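Q: Got one fold?
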Amino acid sequence: MIFQTIQGKKVRRVVGMMSGTSVDGVDAALVEIMDAGHSMEEGHSMERAHSEDGHAVESGGPLRVRLLAFENRPYPEAVREQIFSLFRPETSTVDRIGYMNFLLGELYAQSALSVIRKAGLTPEDVDLIGSHGQTIWHEPVPCGKDGFPVRYTVQIGEGSVIAGRTGLVTVSDFRVADMAAGGQG
């Protein structure tokens, strides 16, 4: 029901977040997604919309996208070190992965709330959050072990924590979903 309500809106505001293998921090972008026929408020045209660094932010097709705010929130150095240790099987344990999964959920939630404030909005003005998370292991080539062509990936940054702290619908595990559907993640 919630997704049908969001999908039916002419204008949707979405926070998208991720962190790359460099583990530098959380990139958070707040975008406005509109049906192509819907005009932007205050007379701005989609054809002239640009991000703060001058890059065009419109998309082709039936939807138009406008960047409202972006920021990178660096991970604290101690957190970076802990994440890097999770990349190695010999230092990656279930308790450490579980802890960091929830800690990153907290940091991602802070990033989402921060980029929303930067845009001059409140969480009530935003429809949902999409969070890729932090990849700690990615094996897109089938291993064929145990009689199944298993490919797998592990992302951390708990979506339920993000949803709980922000009060917003949060979609996560994009890479996992893509691999489950036969993609490379």
